[in-house]
Structure formats: structure tokens, C-alpha cells
């Protein structure tokens, strides 16, 4: 451990009630938690041996999987504490055995299981030594962590230790840190930023060798970045005009992070139903633009273009930024990185700036204006176009290979042999990327050539186009007038014949581009089929090369496809001999083609030079040092396992940088060199610097809050729970007569609510417990909450309500409640931070739609007239409603509530009100008879005892029971109708 970690643990142990620790992102949170547990275990063992009591298990909550693995590994290495992961599917008997196993046990639990075990007394608070919460930034007064802390501190002053490595989340909202401490009954706040004196001294004592590599972006990337920033700035300006958002939060720097969405939604959620469609779309567009800016430096050019095509299809209709001028620049530059349409003389065909592609339509035949004629002559005169492949590589790819070659050269000069010993400075090289996809792609670029990687991505893109347009299916019979311009043959005419010129109008550039892509896709598709049919004829050059590190050769099938595509690459109107043979064998001819779709790579040389380049790439890949790839999104700490000597940070991340600093400080004798790859003058640099600046500002705010914080006396939990002093008097006692003799207040019994175990995923049991209601967790077959022997409640949040209507589950739930309880209640609970409405006034249409949520609710009430609907504004409003509903009701019985809806061994369902008093099958049959409605079927049941007796009743008696002469005659005629 580093000295500042020992000091942080010592500060925590000074207060026996616990504390809240906020550390910088990337500092060793797992080491702090594990060391604290070991110290607490040592204190507990010492007090037990001296006869001072103590002992018990340690409970750990809200631990992510990666952090849980680190803590478990450190505790197992110490061999002092037993570590168990108690999942939700562990039986109750096994959990009770773990709770009572004695000292030296650390348990990872879920809040839902722990809350239920505390309420059912499966776990006694006296058997708990300490509680650790590892995600304190998620705690609030209604969270499960606060619920468990309250349950444990009701009986004894248990220490609660909370940790958080998200300082920016601890300042989100008003007095977030103070409210968190109040909900967890913590009185002390410990702050450990990166600029802390002790932390800075330890981390800077033996820093690693850092080399900052700035990679210039290509001109299309610079243009795309500028266009995206312009679009974001325009959206932010439009959002500022609403006057409903704090202007200080609407900046480009904050818009680079995911938390920006939370900031905006937190301000707009309470008034979301009053906003127009444009404002709502602006919020979604900012999220989309942030992803586009992030993916620009992460994805290759083909994948980025594919993502843009997806956005155009999914968001093109309703998106606001798509209509801006900068969006045209984004799409055009993204295409230019992959391909471009050129004339035979080399001039590029492009759309005029600011003119959207979808507006360049084919001119109708009946328009014969002079301008249209000129355009037609201009397009048709230059009818021969080429599809030139650019396939721009990511600039970092080349720099990464150069760095690896430089590292390998230095290792050869130093030792002559590349060692992989972890204690040797010539160890492995670790490359840190954002996600797993980037790791796999970089591994392909190193083991093979980047040109081959881009070629495969391009072929996948074209095959995706072919699949989208149905080119992968069997050819269908064409009509006399072909609609695809012969795209299936890899060509498309533009009117070279006189007859075609008479009938054809000017061809739009967008259609020309689409047809060219489809023709290229058809060529790739046909060559793939030919390669599959000719696996035996493998070119001799295809046998060269291997993938480094795994000893596997490239499959023959892949090489055949690649060689075939390269042949297609060099094709013009007059095909090569080999390709001409393939075309003849497939029955196709290209002699009628007037527009030659030739895919010429901008960086590729002729065939012999290309082959030699590939051989050099394979040779370089063999001579590269051993490389390991690490995905930052996985949150796995691998530095202590792999112990690299060189780290290349391909996608800079502040958290990983701190982990490198801690790793080097813990291993001062090991040499470590770190390369940072930044795109020069990019949003990547801005985002990295903004993340550091944002964390420093968050800690400065926490330091100010700590200096001004007022800690209540009862915050340690001594005065926990509702007391007569702070709880308002019930309504009945307020209205009591004071002149009545014996003015002593009657002792009221405690309220209790039976709660389904699955409901502990929500925060309502926590709020009910805050109100002083006793919670009884059981497994219910009918309903979610049982308030009394007569009242059963089915709780639905807004999202769950929509899903229940879609699946039909709500209908069955209401039907079972009506069958077993006299007062079934459907509780529709809204979020306190969101609008108290299903939809805004502007979204309400003039016509009634059966798919609308209001229509579905109306049909539900019409079908079940006894159903009662309760609308709740928030969790606290729900608790008040429950207390009002229970005011004149008896307390529910736990055993009876558990047996409701559960058949016995004889198949009889207990407490089935309808089954005991009525024949449910006969009732359902009665309600389906003509003339019988929901308003008269109960009177019919009271007037006769069976269906046979109903059939014998005269019409006059039916009129009295049904209240309608027409309905009585209809029923009588139906019953006595002859077949």
C-alpha cells in the first residue's frame, strides 16, 4: 500500500460510526476497502479475545463486478477473511448459515436480498460487524442503501463506511454530498483528490516516462469535426432560447460527456409534458452528435459511414440537425473518406454545398425548360463515371505500427533477444483502447496490413448494401422495363442509345451514386460466389503470410476472395483475361456497359507492388514485440497481472492514467514507458483535458461544502425512526372531542403492510418504513401490496404499465385480484422528478386511438367495474395514500395473504370469494348471453339460482330483472331458438 492509502484508512478508523470517502477516479478504491476490512477484522478479533464482545460478519453492498473481483483477490491473498458472494438465487437456509458462521466472513450481497433478510429476522443486526457501500454516489433518501443503513442502525450504532470514485456525481444537484451523508447516517466526509499533498507526493515520487504523440487528423476528419461542433453549437443555441434550462450548463465542454444528458434531462423532466416536439428533439440530437464526435476518432472510415447511413434512415425524418447546413458537410466528407465518383478525366463529381441529396430528384419528362435541358445535356454528355475507392486509414494506425517497430528495435539493441519475463524491462507492450471492437481491429492491423482490414470492411459494407436491396436472393423475373438499370449485372445504362435518350430524363447524382454502389456490391457478391465455387484454384501469392502469435495461416477461401477482389479492382471497360473468363463462365457480358464501375484504390499500387507490400507487412508483424490489448470499457485491472514495460494509450482516459500512476508508484523499481496518442487539435484532447478540469472543480466544490456543512446531532442514528415529537398527529386524533371525559389518547397499534419480495427492487418499501409502517416481506401470488383483508394493490410504474398492457399481463393480474379481494386497486405511480402526465397536451389527438394508453385504461375499467385506480405523484404521496386507505381497515394476516391464489393438495384455492359463493364458469357463460350486460347480470343472478331456472323464467319476470323489455325478449328468443 502507498502511504496516502494508509493515512486514508487511519482517518476512517478514527470515527467508530464510519464515514464517507470520495477519491479521484482511478485511485485504488479496492485497496482502500480491502485494507479497511482487514483492520476492522483485526480490531474485532482483539476485542473478542480480550472479552469485550464484538465479532460478526462484514456486509459489502453495491460493488461492481470488477471492483468485487479486486477486493476478493486481495482478501483471499491475506488468508484472514472468508469471502462469499451471496446472489439472489441462494436459498434462505444457506444465507442464514452464512450469517451465523461467526467472525472473519465478508459477504457481497444485493440490497434486495439483504433488506428482506433483515425484515424477516434471517439476519440479526447484532451479527453484523460493519457495512460497506461502494457506490455512495447512487445513495439517496429513497435508495436501498439508505433503507439497509436505517434497518441496521435501529438497534445498534453500527459503523457504515461509504466510498465513491465519482466526485462529479457527488456535486450533481443541490447539496448532494450532504444529503447522501444524511441518508446513510454518516457524520464525517473524507476527500482524497489527485492534487492532495500526500497523494501527489506518493504518485510523483517515481513517475513513468511519458511520451506525448500528437497525430494530425486528415482534412476530411477536420472538416467533419468542425461540422459536428457547429451543429452542436446550433442545437445549444436553440435550446437556450427555451428559457427553461440553466444557461451555464449548456456549453460545448460539458456536451462532450454522457453526464450532459443527465444535466439537461434533470432540468427538463419536471416540465417535459409542456415542451414542444422541437425542444425534445434537440435533446436527442445533442446525444446523437456527441456520439458522432466520439466515434470519429474511434471507428474506421467505413464503419463511420455505415453508422451515418443508419442515422439517416432512423432519424432523418424527425431530426433537427439533419436539416442544418453542416449535416450535408458531415455526410459528404464521410463519403469522401471511403469513395468518390469521378469522371474519366479525374474530376470529382459532387453535390453543390448546402443542397441536400434527397432534393436532387429526377426531373419529370413533361418539364422542358431550358435549365432542365442544359442539365440533361451536361449529365448525359459525361455519361462515363468511375467509382474510385479511397478507403482512408485511421492516422493512428500507421503511428501505432511505427511505435511498435521502434520499441522492437530498441529491445533488439538492448538485449538482442526479446524477453517476456515480467521482471525484465523488455516485457510485453500493452495497448489500451476504448472498447473490445477497437482492440480486435487494431490486432488485425498489426498482424496483417491496414489495407487488408479496410478492404474487408469495405466488402462488408458493399455486401450489406447488396443484402439491403435483396441482391443476395435469387434473381427474380424482370419486367420489360428494368427498374434497376441492370444493376444486378454490375452495370447501369444512362442512355447511350438514341431511344434511351428520348425516354430518359436527367439522372440525379444521388441516384448515380446509389447505382454505382449497387453495381460494386453486385460485383463483390458475384466474385464471392465464384470464389466459393473455385476453392481449388488458389493463386500462388495467396500462400504467403501468416498471422503473428497464433501460428495460423490465412484460410484459402479468404485469400481467393481477396485475390478476386483485387482483380476486380484493376478492371476497366475491357476486362482482364482472368476476369473475362469468370464473366463468360457466369453468362454475363459487359460489352453493353456505357458507364464503367471501376474500383480503384487511392493508396494501392499495381498488383506486383501490392503483393510485395503485403509480404513486408507480414515480415514486420513477425518482428514486432509481444502485444496485449486492453479494453477500457471492461473495467478490468490488468496492470498487476501483465506487468507491462511499455503502455500505449490509444484512446486517452483519465481513469486509466491514474491507474498507471498508482501501478508505477507501487512498483518504483520497474521501468515503465507510456505513449499517449492524441489527435492534434481534436475533441479527444479537449475531452481529456475537460475531464481533469471537471474533476478538480468537483473536488473544489466538495471542499467548500465540507467547510460550510452543518451536521445534525441525530445524524449518527441515535434518534432514528419516527418519533411522537416529529410525526404529525393522525387525522382522527385531531378531530377528537376535548370535552369528552377521559382525555387520554388511545394507544394505537402499529400499521403493517404485506409486501411481495419482488417489490424490494423499488423504493416504495423504504418510504413506507420511513413513515413508521411495519413491512412484512413474503412471496405473494396475487398483488404486490396487501393493505387489509379487503384491499389488494397492484403497483405499476409508467414504464411497467406500458409493458404490462403490451404483454396482456395486467389483464390477468387485475382479474386475479378481483377474484380474491373485494377492493382491488391499481396504483399508477409517477416519478417525482418527471411530469405528472402520460403525454403532453400537444400530443393528444382529435380521434380516439385504440393503441393510446388512455384508451387501454378506459377499456380495462369498463371490463372490470370493481377496479379502483389510484394516481400517485411520487413515492411519498403513495405512502400517504396507503395510510389513508388503512385508516378504517383491519390489519392483514400474513399467512392468509401467502395462501391466496395458491392451490392446495386437493386442487382447491383458499379464500377464493367467487369460487366459494358462485360458479365462475356459469357466470362467464351468463355474461356472454345476448341482452345480458355488466349492469344487469348481478340482478339476474339474485333472481335465479341456475341457468336452467333462468331458461324457465317468463318474459315479464326477465323484464323486471333486466330492466329492459327488448333485452328480455332477445334473451328469451335466443334460449328457445330452434336449430
Automatic annotation (TrEMBL):
Feature: compositional bias, Basic residues: 545-570
Basic and acidic residues compositional bias, start-end: 364-375
Subcellular location, principal: nucleus
InterPro entries, per the entry: ERCC4_domain (IPR006166), Restrct_endonuc-II-like (IPR011335), RuvA_2-like (IPR010994), XPF_nuclease (IPR047520)
Cellular localisation: Nucleus
Superkingdom of this protein's organism: Eukaryota
Record keywords: DNA damage, DNA repair, DNA-binding, Endonuclease, Hydrolase, Nuclease, Nucleus
ERCC4 domain segment(s): 752-832
The organism of origin for this protein: Triticum aestivum (Wheat)
One GO MF term: single-stranded DNA endodeoxyribonuclease activity
Bias type Polar residues, positions: 572-584
Protein name: ERCC4 domain-containing protein
Spans annotated as Disordered: 352-375, 473-505, 528-613, 719-748
GO biological-process terms attached to the record: double-strand break repair via homologous recombination; nucleotide-excision repair involved in interstrand cross-link repair; resolution of meiotic recombination intermediates
Amino acid at each position: 500500500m502507498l502511504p496516502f492509502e494508509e493515512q486514508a484508512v487511519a482517518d476512517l478508523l478514527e470515527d467508530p460510526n464510519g464515514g464517507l470517502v470520495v477519491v479521484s477516479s482511478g485511485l485504488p478504491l479496492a485497496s482502500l476497502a480491502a485494507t479497511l476490512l482487514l483492520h476492522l477484522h483485526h480490531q474485532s478479533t482483539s476485542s473478542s479475545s480480550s472479552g469485550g464482545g464484538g465479532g460478526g460478519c462484514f456486509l459489502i453492498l453495491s460493488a461492481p463486478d470488477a471492483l468485487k473481483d479486486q477486493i476478493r483477490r486481495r482478501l483471499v491473498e491475506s488468508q484472514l477473511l472468508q469471502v462469499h458472494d451471496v446472489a439472489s438465487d441462494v436459498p434462505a437456509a444457506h444465507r442464514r448459515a452464512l450469517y451465523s458462521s461467526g467472525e472473519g466472513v465478508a459477504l457481497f450481497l444485493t440490497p434486495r436480498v439483504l433488506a428482506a433478510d433483515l425484515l424477516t429476522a434471517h439476519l440479526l443486526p447484532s451479527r453484523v460487524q460493519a457495512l460497506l457501500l461502494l457506490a455512495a454516489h447512487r445513495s439517496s433518501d429513497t435508495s436501498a442503501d439508505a433503507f439497509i443503513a436505517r434497518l441496521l442502525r435501529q438497534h445498534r450504532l453500527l459503523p457504515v463506511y461509504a466510498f465513491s470514485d465519482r466526485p462529479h456525481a457527488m456535486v450533481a444537484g443541490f447539496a448532494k454530498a450532504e444529503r447522501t451523508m444524511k441518508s446513510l447516517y454518516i457524520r464525517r466526509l473524507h476527500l482524497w483528490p489527485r492534487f492532495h499533498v500526500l497523494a501527489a507526493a506518493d504518485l510523483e515520487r517515481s513517475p513513468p516516462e511519458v511520451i506525448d504523440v500528437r497525430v494530425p487528423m486528415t482534412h476530411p476528419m477536420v472538416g467533419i469535426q468542425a461540422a459536428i461542433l457547429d451543429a452542436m453549437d446550433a442545437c445549444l443555441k436553440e435550446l437556450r432560447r427555451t428559457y427553461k434550462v440553466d444557461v451555464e450548463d449548456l456549453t460545448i465542454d460539458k456536451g462532450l460527456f454522457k453526464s450532459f444528458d443527465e444535466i439537461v434531462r434533470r432540468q427538463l423532466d419536471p416540465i417535459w409534458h409542456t415542451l414542444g416536439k422541437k425542444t425534445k428533439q434537440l435533446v436527442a440530437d445533442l446525444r446523437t452528435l456527441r456520439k458522432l464526435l466520439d466515434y470519429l476518432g474511434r471507428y474506421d472510415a467505413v464503419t463511420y459511414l455505415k453508422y451515418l447511413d443508419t442515422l439517416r434512415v432512423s432519424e432523418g425524418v424527425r431530426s433537427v440537425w439533419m436539416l442544418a447546413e453542416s449535416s450535408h458537410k458531415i455526410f459528404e466528407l464521410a463519403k469522401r473518406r471511403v469513395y468518390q465518383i469521378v469522371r474519366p478525366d479525374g474530376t470529382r463529381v459532387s453535390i453543390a454545398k448546402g443542397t441536400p441529396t434527397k432534393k436532387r430528384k429526377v426531373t419529370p419528362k413533361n418539364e422542358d425548360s431550358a435549365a432542365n435541358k442544359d442539365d440533361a445535356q451536361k449529365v448525359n454528355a459525361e455519361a462515363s463515371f468511375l467509382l474510385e475507392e479511397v478507403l482512408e486509414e485511421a492516422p493512428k494506425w500507421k503511428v501505432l505500427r511505427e511505435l511498435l517497430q521502434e520499441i522492437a528495435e530498441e529491445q533488439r539493441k538492448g538485449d538482442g533477444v526479446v524477453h517476456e519475463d515480467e521482471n525484465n524491462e523488455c516485457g510485453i507492450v500493452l495497448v489500451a483502447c476504448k472498447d473490445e471492437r477497437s482492440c480486435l481491429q487494431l490486432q488485425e492491423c498489426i498482424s496483417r496490413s491496414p489495407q487488408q482490414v479496410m478492404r474487408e470492411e469495405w466488402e462488408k459494407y458493399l455486401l450489406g448494401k447488396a443484402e439491403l436491396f435483396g441482391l443476395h436472393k435469387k434473381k427474380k423475373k424482370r419486367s420489360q422495363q428494368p427498374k434497376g438499370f441492370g444493376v444486378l449485372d454490375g452495370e447501369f445504362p444512362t442512355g447511350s442509345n438514341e431511344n434511351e435518350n428520348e425516354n430518359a430524363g436527367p439522372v440525379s447524382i444521388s441516384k448515380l451514386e446509389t447505382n454505382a454502389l449497387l453495381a460494386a456490391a453486385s460485383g463483390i457478391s458475384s466474385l464471392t460466389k465464384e470464389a466459393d465455387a473455385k476453392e481449388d484454384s488458389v493463386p500462388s501469392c495467396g500462400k504467403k503470410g501468416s498471422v503473428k502469435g497464433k501460428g495460423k495461416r490465412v484460410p484459402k477461401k479468404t485469400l481467393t476472395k481477396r485475390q478476386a477482389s483485387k482483380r476486380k479492382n484493376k478492371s476497366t471497360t475491357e476486362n482482364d483475361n482472368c476476369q473475362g473468363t469468370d464473366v463468360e463462365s457466369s453468362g454475363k457480358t459487359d460489352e453493353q456497359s456505357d458507364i464503367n464501375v471501376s474500383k480503384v484504390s487511392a493508396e494501392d499500387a499495381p498488383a506486383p507492388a501490392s503483393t510485395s507490400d503485403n509480404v513486408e507487412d507480414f515480415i514486420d508483424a513477425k518482428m514486432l514485440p509481444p502485444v496485449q490489448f486492453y479494453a477500457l470499457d471492461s473495467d478490468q485491472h490488468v496492470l498487476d497481472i501483465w506487468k507491462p514495460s511499455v503502455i500505449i494509450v490509444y484512446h486517452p482516459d483519465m481513469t486509466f492514467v491514474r491507474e498507471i500512476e498508482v501501478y508505477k508508484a507501487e512498483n518504483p523499481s520497474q521501468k515503465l514507458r507510456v505513449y499517449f496518442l492524441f489527435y492534434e487539435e481534436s475533441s479527444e484532447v479537449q475531452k481529456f483535458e475537460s475531464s481533469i478540469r471537471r474533476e478538480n472543480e468537483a473536488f473544489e466544490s466538495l471542499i467548500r461544502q465540507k467547510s460550510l456543512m452543518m451536521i445534525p446531532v441525530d445524524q449518527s442514528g441515535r434518534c432514528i425512526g419516527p418519533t411522537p415529537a416529529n410525526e404529525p398527529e393522525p387525522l382522527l386524533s385531531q378531530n377528537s372531542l376535548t370535552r369528552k371525559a377521559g382525555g387520554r389518547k388511545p394507544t394505537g397499534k402499529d400499521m403493517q403492510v404485506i409486501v411481495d419480495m419482488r417489490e424490494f427492487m423499488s423504493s416504495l418499501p423504504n418510504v413506507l418504513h420511513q413513515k413508521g409502517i411495519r413491512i412484512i416481506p413474503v412471496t405473494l401470488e396475487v398483488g404486490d401490496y396487501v393493505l387489509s383483508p379487503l384491499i389488494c394493490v397492484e403497483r405499476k410504474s409508467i414504464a411497467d404499465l406500458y409493458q404490462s398492457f403490451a404483454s396482456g399481463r395486467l389483464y390477468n393480474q387485475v382479474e386475479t385480484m378481483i377474484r380474491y379481494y373485494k377492493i382491488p386497486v391499481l396504483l399508477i405511480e409517477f416519478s417525482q422528478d418527471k411530469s405528472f402526465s402520460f403525454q403532453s397536451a400537444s400530443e393528444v389527438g382529435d380521434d380516439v386511438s385504440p393503441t393510446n394508453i388512455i384508451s387501454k385504461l378506459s377499456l380495462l375499467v369498463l371490463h372490470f367495474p370493481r377496479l379502483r385506480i389510484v394516481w400517485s405523484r411520487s413515492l411519498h404521496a403513495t405512502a400517504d395514500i396507503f395510510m389513508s386507505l388503512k385508516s378504517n381497515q383491519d390489519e392483514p394476516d400474513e399467512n392468509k395473504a401467502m395462501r391466496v391464489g395458491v392451490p392446495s393438495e386437493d386442487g382447491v384455492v383458499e379464500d377464493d370469494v367467487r369460487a366459494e359463493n358462485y360458479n365462475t364458469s356459469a357466470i362467464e357463460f351468463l355474461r356472454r348471453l345476448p341482452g345480458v350486460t355488466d349492469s344487469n347480470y348481478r340482478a339476474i343472478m339474485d333472481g335465479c339460482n341456475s341457468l336452467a331456472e333462468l331458461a324457465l323464467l317468463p318474459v315479464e319476470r326477465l323484464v323486471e330483472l333486466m330492466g329492459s323489455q327488448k333485452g328480455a325478449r332477445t334473451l328469451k328468443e335466443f334460449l328457445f331458438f330452434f336449430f
